[in-house]
Amino acid sequence: MAKSPIKSPLADSDKAVTGGVLQSTLVDLIDLSLIAKQAHWNVVGPNFRSVHLQLDELVAAARKYVDEVAERASAIGISPTGKTTTVVENSSLPAYPEGWQSAEATIAAIVEILAEEIRLLRERIDETDKTDLVTQDLLLELTQELEKAHWMWQAQQA
Amino acid sequence: MAKSPIKSPLADSDKAVTGGVLQSTLVDLIDLSLIAKQAHWNVVGPNFRSVHLQLDELVAAARKYVDEVAERASAIGISPTGKTTTVVENSSLPAYPEGWQSAEATIAAIVEILAEEIRLLRERIDETDKTDLVTQDLLLELTQELEKAHWMWQAQQA
Amino acid sequence: MAKSPIKSPLADSDKAVTGGVLQSTLVDLIDLSLIAKQAHWNVVGPNFRSVHLQLDELVAAARKYVDEVAERASAIGISPTGKTTTVVENSSLPAYPEGWQSAEATIAAIVEILAEEIRLLRERIDETDKTDLVTQDLLLELTQELEKAHWMWQAQQA
Amino acid sequence: MAKSPIKSPLADSDKAVTGGVLQSTLVDLIDLSLIAKQAHWNVVGPNFRSVHLQLDELVAAARKYVDEVAERASAIGISPTGKTTTVVENSSLPAYPEGWQSAEATIAAIVEILAEEIRLLRERIDETDKTDLVTQDLLLELTQELEKAHWMWQAQQA
Amino acid sequence: MAKSPIKSPLADSDKAVTGGVLQSTLVDLIDLSLIAKQAHWNVVGPNFRSVHLQLDELVAAARKYVDEVAERASAIGISPTGKTTTVVENSSLPAYPEGWQSAEATIAAIVEILAEEIRLLRERIDETDKTDLVTQDLLLELTQELEKAHWMWQAQQA
Amino acid sequence: MAKSPIKSPLADSDKAVTGGVLQSTLVDLIDLSLIAKQAHWNVVGPNFRSVHLQLDELVAAARKYVDEVAERASAIGISPTGKTTTVVENSSLPAYPEGWQSAEATIAAIVEILAEEIRLLRERIDETDKTDLVTQDLLLELTQELEKAHWMWQAQQA
Amino acid sequence: MAKSPIKSPLADSDKAVTGGVLQSTLVDLIDLSLIAKQAHWNVVGPNFRSVHLQLDELVAAARKYVDEVAERASAIGISPTGKTTTVVENSSLPAYPEGWQSAEATIAAIVEILAEEIRLLRERIDETDKTDLVTQDLLLELTQELEKAHWMWQAQQA
Amino acid sequence: MAKSPIKSPLADSDKAVTGGVLQSTLVDLIDLSLIAKQAHWNVVGPNFRSVHLQLDELVAAARKYVDEVAERASAIGISPTGKTTTVVENSSLPAYPEGWQSAEATIAAIVEILAEEIRLLRERIDETDKTDLVTQDLLLELTQELEKAHWMWQAQQA
Amino acid sequence: MAKSPIKSPLADSDKAVTGGVLQSTLVDLIDLSLIAKQAHWNVVGPNFRSVHLQLDELVAAARKYVDEVAERASAIGISPTGKTTTVVENSSLPAYPEGWQSAEATIAAIVEILAEEIRLLRERIDETDKTDLVTQDLLLELTQELEKAHWMWQAQQA
Amino acid sequence: MAKSPIKSPLADSDKAVTGGVLQSTLVDLIDLSLIAKQAHWNVVGPNFRSVHLQLDELVAAARKYVDEVAERASAIGISPTGKTTTVVENSSLPAYPEGWQSAEATIAAIVEILAEEIRLLRERIDETDKTDLVTQDLLLELTQELEKAHWMWQAQQA
Amino acid sequence: MAKSPIKSPLADSDKAVTGGVLQSTLVDLIDLSLIAKQAHWNVVGPNFRSVHLQLDELVAAARKYVDEVAERASAIGISPTGKTTTVVENSSLPAYPEGWQSAEATIAAIVEILAEEIRLLRERIDETDKTDLVTQDLLLELTQELEKAHWMWQAQQA
Amino acid sequence: MAKSPIKSPLADSDKAVTGGVLQSTLVDLIDLSLIAKQAHWNVVGPNFRSVHLQLDELVAAARKYVDEVAERASAIGISPTGKTTTVVENSSLPAYPEGWQSAEATIAAIVEILAEEIRLLRERIDETDKTDLVTQDLLLELTQELEKAHWMWQAQQA
């Protein structure tokens, strides 16, 4: 099916830029949701239960935006790709270690990952400023959510 | 953290076999949940809405067992691994195509993928018969769920 | 439509035995649901209200397993049959009397019917031990439910 | 228990006519609920899921009026009979075929069955006009429900 | 405030007849709701709890129609009167005894009271046939409810 | 699509009369729902909030019957028309003024509009008495609802 | 049934005093609930809707304590009496006028009635100080509720 | 009432432009909600049920923004007008055909109508960029919703 | 941990008396909750279902106050003890028989146990009058609950 | 508005004392709710999340009693004052520090603040013993709530 | 704790401006929530109930944004301050009078306070245009909410 | 009542073994529920709140299986015994210490108790393999639940 069956409301060049931004964000968020689950199962130590629960809230937030971002891509005529191979090749997130992790190591890794994703999202907000304000609005909402989460994870390192 | 901090209720050899089964199943189910989402976003054609909704039920079922299977691994002292790289290297599921797909092609691919996973699960049920009945019970329940889904997807090909 | 459009995960002989067990159970459960409704409308006497309500709980339980048993049959490639003529010709349950019934007579009839169905279910659990563990698991759950109901109905005869 | 323990608010001849109408309707509705379940499990083909769900809505509607009609019979002093043998001997509905059915065949059969039941209900509404307005009111409500369902099933044949 | 501030949709004579029927029914239903509460608090004996609960269902039904009947009177321009003195002077219901009552005596009294009210309602349904079909429709619904309750109370005397 | 794809349960002349009644009622109710929204947004004055909320209850009631009336038309084989041009050409309701309105003016206009619609509905109830009792039953229920609303709006003018 | 079947936890004289207080309060609260309903149906004027709704909150509060007070009487071995004749003969509340009432007149009457009941309740709180602290606690809670309502009704007269 | 009783937070010229945009959008959305209902009642053909349900989701979305857009107009001191005559004279949407429609024709018409409304909304977003950012934010949210719906309707044409 | 880590708001002697009362009540309530469960499982006979359900309401009430009483003890600096050995050595409740019990025997035993506990609670209310009014208030509420339950159990013996 | 529009159920001197107690408590509880929010936003450190959540429970409890205490004041004819200037001038609570705080410091401050408020409440309970038992009852309930919270905050310091 | 433990995603000067805007808004919203509560308790007069309820909706809206604004400050590394002394010294809102207030005076004061806050918010929206779009988006949403409330309060003055 | 009023579905020797297993499990689970409550009230220290909440989840899990296990015993004709004396004499669980306990000591004790109960349950699963598969299925489910809890408690010791 070579030609897109979905007509875009955007001009071709705007669609290309916006679609690229959405596809990059989709890949990162899927990776984030799997990393957070991985951490959820492997965290150990004195603060175990509190961190275990907070990670599931992060999974829920990531999954919610995975869906909204992918459906926004479809809505502008871009076929979203969220298969595991695509994620492995394109995710911008730092790697997460294997095996059991202490609560401290878990927190540090999550804080670093969120910081990187927030930095990228702010760049993408700029990129969409000229190409599609509707998509930008969605990214602003997502960024507000992740920055709030970032504060809550950092607060535990103080 | 070389040594597992979780004491297993199983003898060492039983734990190794059971852990292997759980880890394989975990990887397949994560792959299944991402494939079903991919299909959910990319399906097009007259039956679009019905297939779109049915795929989200499959995502929900897969995610539910992803969690139960991983936590069962933790409970017997095995650190579960569900990171994207692990999934790409170890998933037993057939590949799913990129881009927009017709409803028929979507249904055919899902039916094939479910058939393969059910075949593997029935082998794993046999493997756990001697090593851990608690894990076997979890796999029986998962198999009943996937076989029911399998029927419902096949029914549309008749 | 001579050939089944649903591919079975079971070998042919296992499928035949398992399908027979499911079809027999389906017929009995439909009969049970109609008998319990009949009793619900025709019971009279001092304990009327308590028995009237308890019968509706039995209807709900029977209807729940009617659906699960029929869909399990579909899932292994057997077309389930639950039409009234099939039920009349194949139900294993003792007959229930016509017209208004005292609470005592109602209780006695229900206790006898449940006892017979439980006896049959335990035979069917044995039959499926070699053919399909997934179906056996479903029958075990159903038997636990009916045996609990059986106790509660007997308790009123003491 | 030869004599009815429930005193009727109706005169004897009105009670006989009204009771006959209610008993006929009860038998048809039980048959309808079982036919719709049978169809629910055996439908196959491209429109499978949509028809599968719509049939369960028909089951729910039929079951709701099964109860209201039977309890109305009890309320006017008539013992309702809804046992399978009674249904087989007295149902006015056309027979439904065995085995897997295509979506088209399923729709055609349901449309025909509903048309016949609606025709009968309109005769019964006339019969109760002189004998019991309360029962007539219940039949009007039931007819409105089935005629709406009838339209929705026909709409798929256009 | 001598003149009614609410304009009636009915002609004057139809309004007078319909208003009289609604006012009589209102008074009876208030009395019924207080009698049922009285019985609810004073019943004693082996079947205490079952009768105690069933009486509260009767209170709820009576209260629901108290409101609908009074608001229907307002809607046709008749000021409804439901004060205790009005109820004492105009209620058509048989008296209910004071003090603790056995379950049997309670049931017998409620059966008798319901029979009398049903008889009166059927007369009122005839009276409104020529004056206001909308009000008649409301009385039909109320009668169906009370006749069902009547059966359930009688059923305990069998 | 010249011929109706939906077979009517009514004879041709009964269908024509009943269909006309339903189509007229549909048009009036859509108009009523838009007028009530218009009033909801434009009311000002000391009683603003109370009237603002009460208007939304009227919108909800009108919308509920818009759907039931249109689907009843479909059920008897008449294609319902609820497009704005049809509403403008056929609505029987008095016009509602533009711009901000005081609470008093709002109440007076709504009372007048409801009075007119109730008068028309009572004529339509008579028309359907010989052609379709099922439709008549629906109009009785709708009239009861609007007459109750009519009282509540008048009560504020006293 | 001359002798009370319920053994009292109180000494005879304490039981007599406490029982008298509860019976008086029961009668007043039933009267209050009927007066508030009467007002709810008959209020007219610009503030109609707000007063109409507030009266139903008063009905709900009165009914809740009707039940708690009567069941407290039963709990200390006193048969509660709440029949209409008892209420007419024993209620301490001022009479409420017949027919349609303006919002102002309605508010004034309710304020006066609440003031009188609160005065009586404070006397009854004193009476139970020596006889039953559990009953006193219930009256304190009821008084807090009615005094709050009293403020809210007075606030509209300012 | 010549002068607006609501003081605007905007300067006069900004208020005029923003108010015009909101009034145009209000009229289109009311038209859209009626068209979608019209289609909901008149669609026929094999995919009937799926399209019938999807149209009701479009009605719900349209109604939600009807209210938000009208209340935003009120909030900036503009009296919103949503009466049927205003809608007929000012709606920008293409006409929708009368009578029963096949599922394909229904889908094609809805896709075309949504495309036109989205085009207009993007122009209006530009117009409000200089006059009121709060209103622009509301239009962005509405556009995201309609573009997502547009994709889902197009997906069925592939 | 010899010294209490929780600072008491009470003087030492008041704390000792109040703590003793709370500890005694805690032990009795745990015993009551286990006795009621024991009875719930072992009751048989015609009234089985009604008594079975009523016992679970008693369990729920007992468990609710177990928690409130223990946490009140903690709040005043007393470590509560609710271990089985403590309960066996200190419970004031009469013993409950082993094995299946008829409904009558069950009721009689529960009535006796509640009477004894109520007697003790009234003594404890007096004891706390000088030491802690907050605790006394909690006991008053508990006593009201148990006395109401006591009436309902006695009512079945009449 | 010099004279109170709300008539007090209390004698003048009792009203003065009770009103003073309620006004003091109102001011303290508003302060407590703002302090707990301040702490909720500024806490940092290893136990961050647990303390962050527990503080919001304290906010909820404080806000609930803010409302009940203020409405009790209104109910006895005292105009409650909860404006920020009043709170600053009259609050009895110790000051809370500015800026980020460690979890330990947060806990210590909250424990000290609660201890002081509990001490004051116990004095106020004594003051109202002679002036208004209804108000005293409200204070007892509030004290029980705060003492339970106090224990839970202290428990973390052990 | 001199240095902020939360790393800001903003450059230092952007952080300073944005932080100032958020702190000012936080202080105003806390003041608004307390003023609205004060008004809620002290309003009297014929429209009492309607205004009393509308004020609680304003409290709820204010409290919701208090939390979101404070947590946004934390998220960009600014410690929010919401203590009463800070509010008294920094709130931009006009003062609210002490004691009982008529409904008219209450409405006038709230309208004036909202107008002032809206004016300030529109300035702050401009200030954040260059420093943080995420914060600006939050302020746009808050302004839409307050402008809608402003209209509803003004509508009562017309 | 020497003879069991409940007929067993099992042969005598199977019933004896299965009944023994259920009775042992019942006793252990009651003990576990009381120990977890004891720990819930007496835990102190830095992690107080987290452990306090997690213990209540353990209480809920234990209570759920107390009921299912006891009702399973009744269902096979064995009278279950859960009285405190029986628990003290037969519980297999290690003793739990008196008085306040640190979070670490609490965790260690719970981990040890769960390990012992899991070891016993696995033996009982073997015992029931030959006597009653239905009971075994219930034990498998219980074991899965406790092993998951065991992991979560251990994770905090890592």
List the helices and strands and how they pair.
12 copies of one chain form a homododecamer.
Chain A: H1 12-42, E1 43-44, H2 48-75, H3 84-90, E2 101-102, H4 103-127, H5 133-154
Parallel strand pairs in A: 1-2
Structure description:
12 copies of one chain form a homododecamer. With 158 residues, chain A is mainly alpha-helical. The first copy, chain A, has a single domain, classed as Up-down Bundle (Ferritin). In chain A, 72% of the residues lie in helices and 3% in strands. Chain A contains 5 helices and 2 strands, in the order αβααβαα. Chain A has helices at residues 12-42, 48-75, 84-90, 103-127, 133-154; strands at 43-44, 101-102. A two-stranded parallel ribbon of chain A has the order 1-2. Chains A and B meet through helix 1, helix 2, helix 3 and strand 2 of A and helix 1, helix 2, helix 3 and strand 2 of B.
